[in-house]
Structures are given as structure tokens and as C-alpha cells.
Design brief:
The chain is an alpha/beta fold. The protein has 21 helices and 17 strands. A hairpin with a 2-residue loop joins strand 6 and strand 7.
């Protein structure tokens, strides 16, 4: 069984000449012909080299791995029941799915409250994030969920003022924070500012706390899409030089006269900006947590990636020992921007394996009476059934599911439809629902009533797209939870899942379908 696609992908704009006749392990056409122009990844690499490492076209796509893992969340079934109810009265008039409460409360002082059990766990300096931030921020705020401002936003901002290596003023970060806080409803949700090495050196989180009133900050060890620092492509020489001056790794060197001459005559069209990889130590971690709290951070989070198990153990232990409020664990296959394509597919611990180890490690500490932070899991979640499964696999410790590509897609579609409405160019597929926002977006009339005309008029179509997508997820999740007779998130348990394969059961510790309820069923039959 082949798990990976090799040598051709829509992500790298490559394909095989003989698409139905490919060698599985190499991905090459069975007959590679002299004279082919090089449509496959090998061929394209022959003339564009390192550019083909990354998904394309840059700036207008979000990408995630297409590798098929042996076990994934689809290998589990959600168990419903015909009796009982947790969280409401056990009668048919009370136990209806609209009664399911999806609110989540967490933090050391239980001061963080989300209307919905998910968060966008880190969207940073990529064009796809910046171009859709208005919809993401306002939509998240209206829905009462969390949104994380990812790495490098300040460093990438040409209007940021940096003195003696520290940020003193920004345009982009300030805009991103205020787009959320200006639409936040009744204190629900949170805007979170993440930091990598470069951000920490620039003092980004201290600036966000002191000048922008941010309460939640997140230290970043990594992500599920890659095991190197963040990267973007730069098409402007002046900006490439600016980022080089700010301490980023910029390739090729924009200060080299030969490189400049090559760029100006069109030998290449883009520079790469890379962040450095972190070096985790307990001493450094403890020091940074203390610095953030002294700076005024009310809540301190940690996000880690799909690293080997020993690194997950470090994350869990450090989060416990130093009182972290939320630990986010992002599994392999994730991604929102420009992660190297082969790396995104072939690196790191996949979701079921990583999230199972996470449960085991946190549970071991909890059983010893240690502090256990709220936990979020991420890695390709898009719909309500996956959200339920993510919460259940890690119950009772997992409080949130992290999603990025789904929300970005919803915001992009909303933005595109809004533009089409304004231009009077709605496609037939959409026009069948109506011609204005209230007719097309099913939640628009409700929002208009709730917000009032003045506020509603400032809600962009991208935010309507995200809010409406979230509304669908919420209703779908309520239905699944009601079927399992769990009427609040805190009642979801690992017992709500069954493994559809023996392999999934062996890895996760979730019982195989035919082993579920064996003793209870026998007791009923033998009574």
C-alpha cells in the first residue's frame, strides 16, 4: 500500500506524463522519455531548483499534506446511546440537541471563556493570513472563539518602528489585535499573540501586553507542518533587505551585488525569508514564562509541533511544572502557508499517534496529582465529527480543537462572494440562493438583528463566511453530542468512541467496535 504521492501534486503544480502508469516508490512515469519538457516534480526541479520545494502559487493558497496515514480520525466511530442524559434532565423534552452547551472555560483562574470549543492556533506573516485577517478576526470575535496571531507579523511589517532591536510601534500587529477586540462580544473568545525566536528578540509580546492590552501570549516550539522555522517568499528587493537588516535569514543574500544584479535582470523572482529553529531548555523556558508574567501577561500558552515523543514529554512536563494555561499540540500534516511540500508530507508524528501519546502523558501527571493545563489538539480538523473525536480521544484533558485551513477557506469564500455581490457577478451556483448578503449568508439576518445596523454594516463578507461556517459546525456538533447524550463538552469521554479497526484500537487504547460494551451487554442478556 502506497501512503505517499511522490513526484507530482497539485500543491507543486506538477503532474506525470503517464498519470495511470507510475512507479509507486519513486513516483516517476514508468517510461521516462527523452524530449519531455518536465511536467513532473523532477522535471520542474531541473530548471527551477529549490523553488519547487514549496507549494505554489505563493500567497493565494493554503496547503496541507496529502499523505494517507495508516490510522486517522476516520478510523473511529462515535458511539450513541438510546438511554440517559448527561447535563440535562433525562426526558425527551429536555434532551434536545439545541440544549447542548458548547461553552468552554479554562485558564488558571477559569477566566477564559469560549462559546465554541475550538481555536485558530496560529496564522502569521503569510500573505494568505494577512489578506484574510479582517474576516478571520471579526468572524472569530463574533463567534466568541480564539484566534492566534502567529509568528513574524511585526518583523514582516515595513511600517513597524524598531529601536535598539526592540519594537516600539507597529501598524499590522495593532490592526490585527483591534480587528478582534473591536468586535468581541461579552468577553467571549481571546486574541493570542504568539512568538518565535525573532519575535522574542524584538520584544513583540511585551509590546502587545503593554501597548495593545493583550492578555494571552503563546510561546512557540513549532508546528505540525514543518520542523524548521517559518518561511515566506519576498518579491520586493527593498523588503528583502529590510528583513535581512532585522536579523532574518534571507536567501539569497539581498545585500550581495551579484544577487541584486541577478534579481534585477530576472534570473529569479523571489527571495526566501526564514526564521531560526528554537533550542528548548527547561531553564530558558522557565525564564521566559517568568518574563511574560512580569510583563503583565494574564495567560501564558505553549504550542508545540509534531516532534518525537521525548519532545512531547518535555512540553507536557514543562506546561505542568510552570503553570501554563493552554498547551496546543499540532500533529503532522498541518499547514496554512508555505511549508516545504515533502517535509509537510513525510516529517513528524501523525495525529492519532501524537494525540494518543499526549493523552497518556497528561493522564500520567494527573494521576500523580500534578497540575494539568487545558489542552488543545490540532492537525487537519475541519468538521464537527472530527472535532468531537478530537475532544473525546483526549478527554477529559482536551478542551479545544485547533483549526486553521478550514476557517481560512471559509473566510476566503465569504470574501469572494462579497466581492461578487458588489460587482454583480455572482456565479449561478451561488445566485440560486439570492443576490444580496442577507439572502446568501444564512446567518446574516440574525447577525444584523443582534449587532444593530451600525455595527453590522462594518462586518465584512469574509467574517460572515467564517461565522456561518462556525454556525454549521456548532449545530452539527450539538447533534452528535445529543446522540451520545452529552449535553456539555465536559461530559465527552473516551468511552464515546469505538475503533473501527484493530490497528486503531491498538494504537489509541480505544476499544474495537466488537469489544465495546461486552460486559454490560452480557449482563443485560443474562439478567
Amino acid at each position: 500500500m502506497t501512503l505517499s504521492r511522490v513526484n507530482s501534486s497539485a500543491a507543486t503544480l506538477t503532474k506525470n506524463r503517464t498519470e495511470d502508469s507510475v512507479v509507486p516508490n519513486s513516483g516517476m512515469c514508468v517510461t521516462c522519455v527523452d524530449g519531455c519538457i518536465g511536467m513532473c516534480e523532477i522535471g520542474k526541479s531541473a530548471y527551477r531548483g529549490h523553488e519547487v520545494i514549496y507549494p505554489q502559487p505563493f500567497g493565494v493558497i493554503t496547503t496541507a499534506a496529502e499523505k494517507v496515514y495508516p490510522v486517522d480520525y476516520s478510523h473511529f466511530q462515535i458511539m450513541g446511546t438510546a438511554a440517559g442524559a448527561h447535563g440535562v434532565a433525562e426526558n425527551s423534552d429536555a434532551a434536545i440537541f439545541p440544549a447542548v452547551n458548547l461553552e468552554v472555560v479554562f485558564g488558571h483562574d477559569q477566566g477564559l471563556k469560549f462559546r465554541l470549543p475550538w481555536v485558530i492556533p496560529g496564522i502569521g506573516s503569510t500573505n494568505i493570513a494577512k489578506n484574510n485577517w479582517e474576516g478571520l478576526a471579526i468572524g472569530s470575535a463574533l463567534a466568541g472563539t480564539g484566534l492566534t496571531i502567529g509568528e513574524n507579523v511585526v518583523g514582516m511589517d515595513p511600517e513597524a518602528v524598531i529601536r535598539s532591536g526592540r519594537v516600539v510601534s507597529t501598524v499590522d500587529l495593532k490592526r490585527r489585535v483591534e480587528l478582534f477586540t473591536n468586535f468581541q462580544q461579552d468577553g467571549y473568545g481571546a486574541i493570542i499573540v504568539q512568538a518565535n525566536i525573532e519575535d522574542t528578540r524584538l520584544g513583540v509580546q511585551e509590546y502587545a501586553i503593554e501597548k495593545l492590552g493583550v492578555q494571552c501570549v503563546e510561546m512557540k516550539w513549532g508546528q505540525g507542518a514543518k520542523d524548521i522555522g517559518g518561511e515566506v517568499k519576498i518579491r520586493d528587493l527593498a523588503k528583502a533587505r529590510l528583513l535581512h537588516e532585522r536579523g532574518y535569514i534571507v536567501l539569497p543574500d539581498p545585500t550581495d551585488p551579484f544577487v541584486v544584479e541577478s534579481f534585477e535582470r530576472g534570473a529569479f523572482q523571489e527571495f526566501e525569508r526564514h526564521s531560526r529553529v528554537g533550542m528548548v531548555t527547561e531553564e530558558g523556558f522557565a525564564k521566559r514564562v517568568e518574563e511574560l508574567r512580569k510583563a503583565g501577561a494574564r495567560y501564558v500558552f505553549l504550542k508545540t509541533g509534531a516532534y518525537r515523543p521525548v519532545d512531547l514529554a518535555r512540553a507536557v512536563k514543562f506546561a505542568s511544572k510552570y503553570g501554563i494555561d493552554l498547551l496546543t499540540v499540532d500533529a503532522a500534516g498541518g499547514g496554512t502557508g508555505m511549508s516545504p511540500w515533502r517535509m509537510m508530507n513525510e516529517w513528524g508524528m501523525p495525529p492519532i499517534e501524537l494525540h494518543t501519546l499526549l493523552y497518556q502523558y497528561v493522564d500520567a501527571l494527573a494521576r500523580r496529582g500534578a497540575h494539568v493545563p487545558a489542552v488543545a489538539v490540532a492537525g487537519g480538523f475541519t468538521f464537527e465529527d472530527q472535532i468531537f473525536k478530537g475532544l473525546a480521544l483526549g478527554a477529559p484533558y482536551v478542551k479545544l480543537v485547533g483549526m486553521a485551513r478550514g476557517p481560512i477557506a471559509a473566510a476566503m469564500v465569504g470574501k469572494t462572494i462579497g466581492r461578487a455581490i458588489d460587482e454583480g457577478q455572482l456565479p449561478v451556483y451561488v445566485e440560486r440562493f439570492g443576490r444580496d448578503r442577507e439572502e446568501i449568508f444564512v446567518t446574516a439576518s440574525h447577525l444584523r438583528k443582534e449587532l444593530g445596523e451600525e455595527t453590522y454594516a462594518r462586518v465584512p463578507a469574509g467574517a460572515l463566511g467564517l461565522y456561518t461556517y462556525y454556525e454549521r459546525l456548532a449545530q452539527g456538533l450539538r447533534q452528535l453530542m445529543a446522540g451520545s447524550r452529552k449535553f456539555a463538552c465536559r461530559y465527552i469521554s473516551r468511552d464515546d468512541l469505538a475503533a473501527a479497526t484493530r490497528e486503531a484500537a491498538a494504537i489509541s487504547g480505544i476499544p474495537f467496535l466488537m469489544d465495546v460494551d461486552k460486559e454490560a451487554a452480557a449482563a443485560i442478556l443474562n439478567a
